[in-house]
Amino acid sequence: MASKPESVAPSGLQLYSKFAFAGAVCCSVTHGALTPVDVVKTRIQLDPVTYNRGMIGGFRQVIANEGAGALLTGFGPTAAGYFLQGAFKFGGYEFFKQQWINQLGLETASNNRTAVYLASSAAAEFFADIALCPLEATRIRLVSQPTFATGLLSGFTKILKNEGVGAFYSGFGPILFKQVPYTMSKFVVFEKVSEAIYRQFDKESLSDGSKTAINLGSGLIAGFAAALVSQPADTMLSKINKTPGEPGEGTVSRLVKIGKELGFRGSYAGIGARLFMVGTLTAGQFAIYGDIKRILGATGGVEISK
């Protein structure tokens, strides 16, 4: 009787495409689901005088003034933008980890894994932001100016026609300052927390539900850390995309002016809403990412933890 052929683990492009797909889904689903929180957070950042009642009060103000539908403003560019960003971020993170392993060797990479996590996540996020920036600029314009356009396509087209391609990347500097430290802290804290938890258990004997729970808990802590690190740049990103700059005004000069206007306290406007948002979505992302990898048979990943 012929023996049953063993399944071959995915590798190369097949493996990284599964990482990218899992990352795209987890980011798109979580960011899309939290669009209402993002709307309130952005309003608090852009108009703290009006929206000065915290996250719950902000929800009530938006609903009272514009109706419940306003809480879904920017859903299209959010879901589409973070689908692309998630593919580059998670797929790229695994890809760049493997490149460091190839360069350093598995043992050296494992002994210096914090540096590998930092370098891999920074490189992945850089390319992810190139894909995200135009859609994030459209989202912020829709949220900050509710009458600007009716949705993703009309808003994107209007910015492109009236202001040119450069308008989509006016916030590229702030988005890098926001997303690169955010992603670096997010992945490093997640890796460290989950590694500490798994030291207490036999990973192979844990159920799928237990692994998902560990991903959720580790992701929640990672999200809190990432939110605190990236909050000032997130506020500046909202400000710089709210309206076009003055004629001849460069991005750097705009950032300096916005920074002076905000100050330290202003930079952390809306931090309560963002802690809730980022903690929740990061926990959800790592849980969904791990589950999809498991379903697709790509659970091995590029592991260098001890």
Automatic annotation (TrEMBL):
GO cellular component, one term: mitochondrial inner membrane
Coiled coil feature spans: none
Keyword Transport appears in the UniProt entry: yes
BP terms from Gene Ontology: mitochondrial phosphate ion transmembrane transport
Record's keyword terms, sorted: Membrane, Mitochondrion, Mitochondrion inner membrane, Repeat, Transmembrane, Transmembrane helix, Transport
Topological category with respect to the lipid bilayer: Multi-pass membrane protein
Compartment(s) where it occurs, according to its Swiss-Prot or TrEMBL record: Mitochondrion inner membrane
UniProt cross-references to PROSITE patterns, sorted A to Z: SOLCAR
Solcar repeats mapped onto the chain: 14-99, 112-196, 210-295
Gene3D superfamilies on file: Mitochondrial carrier domain
GO molecular function, one term: phosphate transmembrane transporter activity
SUPFAM superfamilies, per the entry: Mitochondrial carrier
Lineage: superkingdom: Eukaryota
Family stated for the protein in its record: Belongs to the mitochondrial carrier (TC 2.A.29) family.
Name of protein: Mitochondrial carrier
Organism: Petromyces alliaceus
